[in-house]
């Protein structure tokens, strides 16, 4: 029996994700907070600009956590929590509440989930774009 080893998300990877998302946001004239979690949900990197709305830090963390727990971009999950949606009755008795607003994106390596990034502070569609740009830069 063979096992496949996948390199974990490193601190260097996390710092690259944060820097890329921040740069994309700055290029768009938006101030954001960025959170990167490893596959176990542990904080690897975080950045909140002093000009960012205070709650953007919690927002970015919850977006990353949601993307990690459900292994999907939060932008793809918005409809799932509406009445009649797949997750409408999802229990909220987790470590921290899930947040179904675009801006959380899973990070994968060799097809396996190794972490997640969350961006908060801009419009949800902007946050999603900043997070996606960061993940693409890591690839």
UniProtKB/TrEMBL annotation:
Q: Which Pfam families match?
A: HbpS-like
- InterPro entries annotated for this entry? GlcG_carb_metab_protein (IPR052517), PduO/GlcC-like (IPR005624), PduO/GlcC-like_sf (IPR038084)
Q: What is this protein called?
A: Heme-binding protein
């Amino acid at each position: 029996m063979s096992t496949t080893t996948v390199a974990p998300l490193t601190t260097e990877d996390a710092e690259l994700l944060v820097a890329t998302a921040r740069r994309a946001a700055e290029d768009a004239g938006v101030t954001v907070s960025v959170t990167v979690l490893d596959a176990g949900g542990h904080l690897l990197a975080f950045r909140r600009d002093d000009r960012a709305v205070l709650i953007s830090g919690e927002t970015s963390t919850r977006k990353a956590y949601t993307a990690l727990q459900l292994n999907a971009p939060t932008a793809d999950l918005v409809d799932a929590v509406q009445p009649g949606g797949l997750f409408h009755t999802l229990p909220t008795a987790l470590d921290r509440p899930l947040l179904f607003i675009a801006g959380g994106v899973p990070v994968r390596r060799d097809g396996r989930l190794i972490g997640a990034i969350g961006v908060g502070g801009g419009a949800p569609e902007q946050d999603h774009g900043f997070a996606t740009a960061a993940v693409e830069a890591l690839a």
